[in-house]
Amino acid sequence: MNRPPLEVADIVRAQGNRFIENNRHWIHALHCKVLRAIAHCRTAALGGHRDQCPRCGHSAISYNSCRNRHCPKCQNGARDKWLAARQHELLAVPYVHVVFTLPHQLSQLILQNKSKRRMITILTTNSRVHLFRRWTRLGGSNKSLRRRRIGW
Ligand SMILES: [Zn+2]
Fold first, then answer.
1. How far is the CA of 42 from the centre of ligand 1 (A)?
2. What is the pLDDT of residues 9-47, one digit of tens each?
3. Residue 27 or residue 128, greater confidence
4. Where are the alpha helices (DSSP H) in 23-147?
5. Cα dihedral sign for 108, 109, 113, 116?
6. pTM value?
7. CB atoms within 10 A of CB 35
8. What spacing in Å lies between the alpha carbon of 98 and ligand 1's midpoint?
9. Burial class for 130, CB neighbours closer than 10 Å (0-12, 13-18, 19+)
């Protein structure tokens, strides 16, 4: 498998410590642990093992992975499997992907209150879906919604 020219791990290795130092006011030990895992994943820092082909005898050294659930290298395979499994669950109907955003003023509050973030997201999403349903029942359409620039 070819390595992409730049990986998240490269960025974390290059700027991770600086990022942590500049954001000490909100970064927790768990965040640092994730960054360390990403930086060390599949490097000599986590050790390695020798794989050998039973037919030809060719061998190669592979570095161990971090298995952190936030690591993009470790989760690529899991994500692909999850997506493939979800494909079988989809109904043969058109789907609409809807993205809700929160006001920028809430960004720091949400980042610092991870447990409350889910509740805020659910509450705002439910209220916006309700507003959208009312809007469409009253004769509004996606097109007129966009034209009137009602923020979602
Ligand atoms: Zn990893």
1. 7
2. 999 999 999 999 999 999 999 999 999 999 999 999 999
3. 27
4. 29-40, 72-89, 107-112, 114-137, 142-147
5. negative
6. 0.55
7. 21
8. 30
9. exposed
**How many residues comprise the chain?**
152
Count of Cβ atoms closer than 10 Å to residue 64 Cβ: 15
82 Cα to the center of ligand 1, angstroms: 17
C-alpha of residue 19 to centroid of ligand 1, in Å = 20
Nearest CA among 35, 42, 34 for reference residue 13: 35
Q: Is 9 left (phi over 0), alpha (psi -120 to 50) or beta?
A: alpha
Q: Tell me the C-alpha distance between 68 and 74, whole Å.
A: 7
Q: What is the pLDDT of residues 75-84, one digit of tens each?
A: 888 888 888 9
135 contacts: CB under 8 Å, gap ≥ 6: 145, 150
**Neighbouring C-beta atoms of residue 31, cutoff 10 Å:** 14
